[in-house]
């Protein structure tokens, strides 16, 4: 469905515009490399603590990307909320629930590999489509109210209020589930007391 989007008007660009590297462009590519390496390290580490710390590096890279886009409020929220609070919660959950499984569930086989190949194929096609479209450059700098607390709050609590509330309900369910799993784990470890 996403592949059937209408065609985009392309414009011819002078070769000199493509080869200019400004400081912001170089910073973007360095930050993008940090984000990609952090994300790859997150999904390839066997140690859960190392994976969570790689995710922290990815979140800091995303915050730097927001700062490059002049969305300083979102960059600060990214550092405070995700790299700070959510990561502390992840590390706490990993440490509490880090137990050896008797029979770990490993989904391996032809079907899993086929789904993985299909997902990578879709990703390559979608990425190729997005990179092949030429977008017009921004006419100028963003307006002064772009990314401010007032603008973000106005959009968040008017246009995206339902999504905001659903995310809060989802996080509440995740916290309750973590407490239930931790209690079940604690109950399994404690020896049963003899009844008198």
Question: Can you walk through the features of this model?
Answer:
- The protein is mainly α and 196 residues long.
- 68% of the residues lie in helices and 0% in strands.
- It has helices at residues 15-18, 23-44, 48-68, 72-97, 110-132, 149-156, 161-189.
- Helix 2 packs antiparallel against helix 3.
- The longest helix is centred in the last third of the chain and has 29 residues, at 161-189.
- The protein is globular.
- Residues 1-5 have low confidence and may be disordered.
The parts where pLDDT drops under 50 for at least 5 residues are 1-5
Number of strands: 0
Continuous helix count: 7
- Based on Cα principal axes, name the global outline: globular
Which H/E pattern describes the elements? HHHHHHH
Structural class: mainly alpha
Question: What is the mean predicted local confidence, pLDDT?
Answer: 77
Percentage beta strand: under 5%
Main sheet summary: none
What is the share of helical residues?
A: 55-70%
N/C terminus separation:
67 Å
Give me the Rg, rounded.
Answer: 23 Å
């Amino acid at each position: 469905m996403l592949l059937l989007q209408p065609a985009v008007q392309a414009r011819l660009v002078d070769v000199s515009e493509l080869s200019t590297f400004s400081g912001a462009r170089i910073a973007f590519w360095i930050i993008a490399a940090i984000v990609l390496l952090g994300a790859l390290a997150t999904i390839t580490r066997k140690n859960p603590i190392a994976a969570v710390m790689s995710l922290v590096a990815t979140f800091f890279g995303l915050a730097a990307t927001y700062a490059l886009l002049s969305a300083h409020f979102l960059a600060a929220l990214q550092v405070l909320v995700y790299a700070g609070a959510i990561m502390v919660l992840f590390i706490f959950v990993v440490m509490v629930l880090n137990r050896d499984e008797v029979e770990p569930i490993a989904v391996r086989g032809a079907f899993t590999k086929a789904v993985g190949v299909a997902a990578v194929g879709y990703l390559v096609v979608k990425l190729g489509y997005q990179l092949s479209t030429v977008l017009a450059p921004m006419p100028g700098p963003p307006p002064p109210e772009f990314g401010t607390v007032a603008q973000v709050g106005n959009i968040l609590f008017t246009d995206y209020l339902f999504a905001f509330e659903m995310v809060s309900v989802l996080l509440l369910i995740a916290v309750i589930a973590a407490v239930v799993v931790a209690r079940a784990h604690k109950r399994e470890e404690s020896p049963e007391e003899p009844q008198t």
